Amino acid sequence: MSVIRLSLARLRRIGVPGVLLTIVLLVFTILVLVPFIWMIMMSFRTTGEILADPYGLPTQIRFTNYVRLIADPAIGFMRYFWNSTIVTAGALLLTILLSSLGGYGFARRRFSFPGRSRLFTVLLFALMLPPQAMYIPQFTMMTRYGLLNTRTALILLYTAYAVTISTFLLKTYFAQMPEELEESARIDGAGDLLIFRRIMLPLARPVLATVILINFKEFWNELLIALTMITRPALRTLPLAMMNFVGENASNYALAAASLVVGMSPLLIAYLFLAERFVEGITAGAVKG
């Protein structure tokens, strides 16, 4: 009874709007979690069981799908996993390097030059371009420079997509930092690069975490560019490899579910490590932007 009284007291304290908001958030959370839970359950079943009862529970916990997925050389799943890791890591490093330098240059008055505002406007205009309109020019460009069927092509194209929004986020954050930080460092004899590396970047960790998480998700899950630029099976990324489990003639839904579970694991791990910084960066962007 004491627990019920305490719950009722809390409900009265937050009021009707708070109760309604809590219900809406709970429903939304359930709707988001149900597909993930269903996918995990499917990964412990066989394709025959899934076809017989798609929404049934596993009769027993089997790790056969995971063992076959990782160990079977005919599938080569870990090769695709490694390809995605290389491409995502390379694109992230290049995006962070370019967008942090660009955001810092656009944000600080010390680096002002004629036409800087117009150049930043042009940069933002790139956000409005539909990615599909650029697939053919990109394919032609990569073919001309001999980068078709290479990880380098994916790294460069992913960076080109991500550097615009990342520069905008970092520019907004850097613009709110007080000028006194740089002035005091210059008095001590620090140069621009040293100030950027030792002072500005450490202070921008929340927004950097936001940039990393957003772009990591996009790079890791990207399919259409990889499908356009990669035709050699050995260079496929994870999304391309997962397509092979479900086709027109045959489908292995159990392996597909296991591959999705393994494929989303790096995203979950990254979010667990950067969640607090991610929330700080989003909050700072909302207040300071």
How does this model look, in words?
- The chain has 289 residues and is an all-alpha fold.
- It has 2 domains: 2-43; 74-288, MetI-like (MetI-like fold).
- It has 13 helices and no strands.
- The chain has helices at 2-43, 47-52, 64-71, 77-107, 116-125, 135-144, 151-174, 179-187, 192-203, 205-221, 224-229, 238-243, 253-288.
- Helix 4 (77-107) packs parallel to helix 7 (151-174), helix 4 (77-107) packs antiparallel against helix 10 (205-221) and helix 7 runs antiparallel to helix 10 (205-221).
- The model is unreliable at 285-289 (pLDDT under 50).
Layout: helices, strands, pairs:
Blueprint: H1 2-43, H2 47-52, H3 64-71, H4 77-107, H5 116-125, H6 135-144, H7 151-174, H8 179-187, H9 192-203, H10 205-221, H11 224-229, H12 238-243, H13 253-288
List low-confidence stretches.
Answer: 285-289
How many helices? Answer: 13
CATH superfamily label of the largest domain: MetI-like
- Principal-axis shape equals globular
In percent, how much strand structure appears in the residues? Answer: under 5%
- The number of domains is 2
Structural key phrases:
single chain, mainly alpha, 2 domains, 75% helix, disordered C terminus
In short:
The protein has 289 residues and is mainly alpha-helical. The chain has 13 helices and no strands.
